[in-house]
Design a protein that fits this description.
Helix content of chain A: 40-55%
Radius of gyration of chain A: 18 Å
Structural class of chain A: mainly alpha
Strand content of chain A: 5-15%
Distance between the termini of chain A: 42 Å
Oligomer: homodimer
Order of helices and strands of chain A: HHHEHHEEHH
Domain HTH hxlR-type (chains A, B): 36-134
InterPro entries (chains A, B): HTH_HxlR (IPR002577), WH-like_DNA-bd_sf (IPR036388), WH_DNA-bd_sf (IPR036390)
Number of strands of chain A: 3
Largest sheet of chain A: 3 strands, antiparallel
Keywords (chains A, B): DNA-binding, Transcription, Transcription regulation
Pfam family, one (chains A, B): HxlR
Protein name (chains A, B): HTH hxlR-type domain-containing protein
Chain lengths: 143, 143
DNA sequence: CTGAATCCCATATGATACTG
DNA sequence: CAGTATCATATGGGATTCAG
């Protein structure tokens, strides 16, 4: 199941969006506030699989199996859950074709595309700084 | 306990770092590869609490209690675990003062500081796009 | 055969009580 | 104050089974 692990009362319609999410007077209304809905959003995007999915989808739509191959090692369930969460949050679209064998394609939405830059930066950071991180781990564990 | 949830054989010393993490010939050696150590790194940084901790620490060292206050809603245990993981990976330093009452300060390392930009971008993205995300959720759930 | 739901376990996270 | 210990629960994730 796709659960919403967040301690926030959902807003209602898209129309009233701006009003609902305005900070109460005198409140620091940021991702740091436990009552701010943006935390739900941060939890979704600051996530290992999300980062990889968005990064991989940049080059165009991919079907389920291709994503699974690209994201070496992800299980079917986790990929399904991740994709559904991303679809729900408006980051990707899901296009199912009535064919045999079945074909389902996932594609970045404009919103999702705005996330690609930031997330790919993160992926690159991870790749570029492994040596330093692993060295730090070695040093730390040696004590 | 602080666990390492990763499927990677640790490298050995900092000296041999460059050799060990060179990709086997013909391999796409990226964060997408399940055998690439950078995944361990990505898992740590692409994380809700990590993003918030690094973001908050940018303005200078903070002590445990201040961090806990700033990161509204985090439990002591989780904050401890998160900080220890970040320290192990060389992102922050921990300075303990022999005073009563005790004082412990956490500070970004140069390595950690290189992460601040990318992660704060993510936090800001979350803050700026909540309306769109919540609207998308509304639309999705309405079906 | 592809995509995804189900079952089940490991881990992550959180609340609470306790200590130097 | 800054943790640790313990316990309870939520979530992540893999193996398997199911559906079209």
């Amino acid at each position: 199941m796709v659960t919403n692990n967040l301690n926030v009362t959902n807003g209602r319609t898209a129309m009233s969006t701006q009003k609902i999410y305005a900070p109460p007077p005198g409140t620091n209304w940021s991702v740091l506030s436990s009552t701010c809905p943006s935390r739900t959003s941060l939890a979704r995007i600051a996530n290992k699989w999300t980062a990889m999915v968005i990064t991989v989808l940049e080059d165009g739509p991919l079907r389920f199996g291709d994503l699974r191959t690209a994201l070496e090692g992800i299980s079917g369930k986790v990929l399904t859950d991740t994709l559904r969460d991303l679809e729900r949050d408006g980051m990707i679209t899901r296009q199912s074709y009535a064919e045999i064998p079945p074909r389902v394609e996932y594609e970045l939405t404009p919103l999702g595309r705005t996330l690609h830059g930031p997330l790919s930066v993160l992926c690159r950071w991870a790749e570029e700084h492994i040596p330093e991180v692993l060295a730090a781990r070695d040093a730390y564990d040696e004590r």
